Here is the input.
Amino acid sequence: MRAILFLVLLLVGQSAAAQTVLQCSPAHDRIVREALDSAKSLTTMAATAVGDTPEYARWFGVYSDHNAEIVRANLKAVVRAIRTGAVTVQCDSIRDDGCGNGEYAWVYAHRPYRIYLCPSFFDLPPLTALRPGTTASNNGTREGTFVHELSHFRPVARTEDHCYTRRICSRMASTDPARAIENADNYQYYTEDVIYYASQPVSGKAPP
Ligand SMILES: [Zn+2]
Here is the structure.
């Protein structure tokens, strides 16, 4: 009886954690699952780190408790989406819709939680592999891309693409915090910077 109960728990546990990966090679399937898993824990850390910090100011502008509460809730919603185990990731080719303009990934916001990955996604570094002094994160990371895409879904954070890139979106944070807290790239770069900085000693931090 105890053995049967254990088996049931095991099966329930697995189905809760298993995401669906479609049309990816075995190597890419592994990368996708690792990045999703890692995004779950890193985004949890990013949500916990929300506060009156330089990383917050860089991506969401002048600090307010009200805005910080929204940012924290949106990051937690990303974590919850991954925890459902209902994320479906599909590997697309460069010829497929949505992958033509140098995209790394894309989604339909009204279709949670299906994420289409373009081939260039696999050229991005994993966030956990970044080391002090590197500029490899300038175009993002695998985990950060998942944060960006998941944040778009309506049951998650309904974010927009008001701007793209670190340069333009950090400028938007300083001029228009209300738009920055609605913008997918800002959640991505905030998460990447918090984690990247967290992996370094406090003194002499290089810019990510
Ligand atoms: Zn987007």
Q: What stands out?
A: Residues 8-16, 201-205 have pLDDT under 50 and may be disordered.
